[in-house]
Amino acid sequence: MKVDDREINRREQNREKDEFDDSKIIERILGGEVNEFAILVKKYQKGIYNYALRMLGHEEEARDLAQDIFVAAYKGLRGFRGESKFSTWLFRIAINQTKNRIKYLRRRHFFDDEQYTSEAKEVPDAFATLSGSEDNPEEAFLKKDFSSLIMKGLMELPPDARQIIILRDIEDFSYEELSQIMELNLGTVKSRLHRARHALRKVVEAKMAQGKK
After folding, report:
1. 69, exposed or middle or buried, with CB in 10 Å at 0-12, 13-18, 19+?
2. Which residue segments constitute the domains of the chain, with CATH numbers given?
3. Which pLDDT tens digit goes with each residue over 63-115?
4. Which residue stretches of 157-185 are H helix?
5. How many whole angstroms separate alpha carbon 118 and alpha carbon 48?
6. Of 210 and 196, which is predicted with more confidence?
7. Predicted confidence (pLDDT) per residue in 147-161, tens digit
């Protein structure tokens, strides 16, 4: 039977898709190809690290936390049922691991004197209060400065409020995905996000007012 070039290309594309499809990767891992987990790490490590950094405000601790999250995901991989996306399941683990790490660091008084970093400099403007071309040096500077204020403001919020803003406004999860990640109904997710944004706005506005004095 002759197979035309289009059919060959379609099969190759499907094969490549399977190679990077989360469910297929997980099947291979659970089937004994444990090194395939590195593909999932590479795919999600930036998002997980950025989440950890914005939650903890400290590079080294964020790296350690990100590693713990992936270790926990690997150990619990057989518990992934495919009822949600792997990314949703992974960030649910991230939330639990982060809560544990924050409790541990608080017991060690880590947050008392620590000077938080903001290495994730491209923090999106959650309120879209600044706009304009990045080609304009003055506007670019102002936007960068405002992003720094947002990062500092985030670190002053309670972890639960900081978490939901990061997941929705920075990691760009949908409300439905947030509902699955946080194991809350949609109404609760939306009300918590509204309160968290309001709290962040107040903190940022207060910092801006102090800067004008």
Report:
1. buried
2. 15-118 (1.10.1740.10), 121-213 (1.10.10.10)
3. 999 999 999 999 999 999 888 899 999 999 999 999 999 999 988 888 876 54
4. 159-165, 175-182
5. 16
6. 196
7. 778 888 898 999 999
